[in-house]
From TrEMBL:
<keyword id="KW-0479">Metal-binding</keyword>
<keyword id="KW-0378">Hydrolase</keyword>
<dbReference type="GO" id="GO:0046872">
    <property type="term" value="F:metal ion binding"/>
</dbReference>
<feature type="domain" description="Sulfatase N-terminal">
    <location>
        <begin position="46"/>
        <end position="358"/>
    </location>
</feature>
<dbReference type="GO" id="GO:0008484">
    <property type="term" value="F:sulfuric ester hydrolase activity"/>
</dbReference>
<dbReference type="InterPro" id="IPR017850">
    <property type="entry name" value="Alkaline_phosphatase_core_sf"/>
</dbReference>
<dbReference type="Pfam" id="PF00884">
    <property type="entry name" value="Sulfatase"/>
</dbReference>
<keyword id="KW-0325">Glycoprotein</keyword>
<feature type="compositionally biased region" description="Basic residues">
    <location>
        <begin position="539"/>
        <end position="553"/>
    </location>
</feature>
<feature type="compositionally biased region" description="Basic and acidic residues">
    <location>
        <begin position="525"/>
        <end position="538"/>
    </location>
</feature>
<feature type="signal peptide">
    <location>
        <begin position="1"/>
        <end position="19"/>
    </location>
</feature>
<keyword id="KW-0732">Signal</keyword>
<feature type="region of interest" description="Disordered">
    <location>
        <begin position="501"/>
        <end position="553"/>
    </location>
</feature>
<dbReference type="InterPro" id="IPR047115">
    <property type="entry name" value="ARSB"/>
</dbReference>
<dbReference type="InterPro" id="IPR000917">
    <property type="entry name" value="Sulfatase_N"/>
</dbReference>
<comment type="similarity">
    <text>Belongs to the sulfatase family.</text>
</comment>
<keyword id="KW-0106">Calcium</keyword>
Length: 553
């Protein structure tokens, strides 16, 4: 009898255990390796790989008609979801800050330009970052590549802003082989870091695109794929200086323009690097439960080989060529694979989207400007986003003829600003370089058509209105034809401006010179120095007070 009861108990336990394993497999469809999740982790949390290219032009991908071959990007995009109404910011720091906080520039104080190497400035420390939120729900967080969100004090470094590890550069650009950067004559230093220290041991003259890819492969090889990982890979390419290994020039000897030829070689190398990252995801067991997001940080720079054709303008401007980006999502977890998303998506949207996918919580007191757009991308639903504040920059060079009168008393049109609401886009002030640069412009033989694409504005113009859905190339200004629409968008600008925080753009600090820091760009602001100064001032104040008391007595 005892033997029989024992056997029955074993069978019952075995059946229940089998049933629970079946339930777990159904709840975690990404677990195709036949391994049970480690304690405290959930295979429903996807691995997140965010790849950010630097200065890649809108046209500079195979599926947008480029002469530059990008077979990896083309394949990943074709099997995923192409984002064809996707916006970023016109420069490096603004796009990166909005990605990592989910907030517009006007809400972080980074409205103007970029963070310069010599400025005592960084992403404000009171902003919660994407990697910090992912760490809260068990993610391992790693960054490889370009930071460009400030480093003047240790608390600004990537490892202090939520990343478990960091390997890359702190500045906006530098030599791809030597990793040296000169901000001005005599102000030069080394810029390659591993965590919080200069990575002299890794300085083997390896081209940065390949070096960063090797680091990504090492991270994936050493991490447990049963635990969720957030990998932020911010490549230096294809930002100037225009450098690439010789073998990548083979297919582009026919390009006459030397900058375009070098740029093409750099992009070919980047495409190969992303292929190697994808292979590593498959090799080490991450791929089936992964989400790969690819994005450029801003539009291309024609003077440095980039092309945004047929869009207008370039990097650094609020024309479509500066802010409409190459972007796609590739994942086995997508429901509508092989589709095109034409709904409005902005770089701030990744913050809430990825935190929600990771089963994280967004604090109610965090005032986000981004939206959760996963159902829009994965299932083809309507985007919750109906507008984008491209920016309001109160200290950019004012338009000479701008005025409150030109803005109907609602807005001073001398101020550089741009906003999108539904189909309409409004620009005020000085929106920047406004040419269309066709492919022929990169031929030394025939620049004439390029000149024909230039527009000379009538004197005094400081307001432009376009229907971007009907006119994505910004050919027909409708501001005179639709004054009521102009007024509506100016009011929306004014509403946004009421929520803006003061601009953070301090003057350069002489203590930032790498010569004072062992020849390395790095944190120079010392907290103890500040305390000594404050203690000194407190002491001085006490002495003054005691003297005043004596006088009073």
């Amino acid at each position: 009898v005892l033997a029989g009861l024992s056997l029955l108990s074993l069978l019952t336990c075995g059946y229940l255990a089998w049933g629970s394993r079946r339930g777990g497999a159904e709840e975690a469809p990404g677990n195709l390796l036949g391994e049970e999740p480690a304690a405290g982790t959930s295979r429903s949390q996807p691995h997140i790989i965010f790849i950010l290219a630097d200065d890649q032009g809108f046209r500079d991908v195979g599926y947008h008609g480029s002469e530059i071959r990008t077979p990896t990007l083309d394949k990943l995009a074709a099997e995923g979801v192409k984002l064809e109404n996707y916006y970023v910011q016109p420069m490096c720091t603004p796009s990166r800050s909005q990605l990592i906080t989910g907030k517009y520039q006007i809400h972080t104080g980074l409205q103007h330009s970029i963070i310069r190497p010599t400025q005592p400035n960084c992403l404000p420390l009171d902003n919660v970052t994407l990697p910090q939120k992912l760490k809260e729900v068990g993610y391992s967080t790693h960054m490889v590549g370009k930071w460009h969100l400030g480093f003047y004090r240790r608390e600004c470094m990537p490892t202090q802003r939520g990343f478990d590890s960091f390997f890359g550069s702190l500045l906006g650009s530098g030599d791809y082989y030597t990793h040296f950067k000169c901000d001005s004559p005599g102000i030069c230093g080394y810029d390659l870091y591993e965590n919080d220290n200069a990575a002299w041991d890794h300085d083997n003259g390896i081209y940065s695109t390949q070096m960063y890819t090797q680091k990504v492969q090492q991270i994936l090889a050493s991490h447990n794929p049963r635990k969720p990982i957030f990998l932020y890979v911010a490549y230096q390419a294809v930002h100037s200086p225009l450098q690439a290994p010789g073998r990548y020039f083979e297919h582009y000897r026919s390009i006459n323009n030397i900058n375009r030829r070098r740029y093409a070689a750099m992009l070919a190398c980047l495409d190969e690097a992303i292929n190697n990252v994808t292979l590593a995801l498959r090799k080490y067991g991450y791929y089936e439960n992964s989400i790969i997001i690819y994005s450029s940080d801003n539009g291309g720079q024609p003077m440095a080989g980039g092309s945004n054709w047929p869009l207008r303008g370039s990097k650094g401007t609020y024309w479509e060529g500066g802010i409409r980006a190459v972007g796609f999502v590739h994942s086995p977890l997508l429901k509508n694979k092989g589709s095109v998303c034409k709904e409005l998506v902005h770089i701030t949207d990744w913050f809430p989207t990825l935190i929600t996918l990771a089963e994280g919580q967004i604090d109610e007191d965090i005032q986000l400007d981004g939206y959760d757009v996963w159902e829009t991308i994965s299932e083809g639903r309507r985007s919750p986003r109906v507008d984008i504040l491209h920016n309001i920059d109160p200290i950019y060079t004012k338009a000479k003829n701008g005025s409150w009168a030109a803005g109907y008393g609602i807005w001073n049109t001398a101020i550089q600003s741009a906003i999108r609401v539904n189909h309409w886009k409004l620009l005020t002030g000085n929106p920047g370089y406004s040419d269309w640069v066709p492919p022929q412009a990169f031929s030394n033989a025939g620049p004439n058509r390029w000149h024909n694409e230039r527009v000379s504005w009538s004197a005094g113009k400081t307001v432009w209105l376009f229907n971007i859905t009907a006119d994505p190339y910004e050919r027909v200004d409708l501001s005179a034809r639709h004054p009521e629409v102009v007024k509506q968008l100016l009011r929306r600008l004014s509403q946004f401006n009421k929520t803006a925080v003061p601009v953070r753009y301090p003057p350069k600090d002489p203590r930032s010179n790498p010569k004072l820091n062992g020849g390395v760009w790095g944190p120079w602001f010392k907290e103890d120095e500040k305390k000594k100064k404050s203690d000194k001032s407190k002491g001085t104040n006490k002495q003054k007070k005691s003297k005043n008391k004596k006088k009073g007595n």
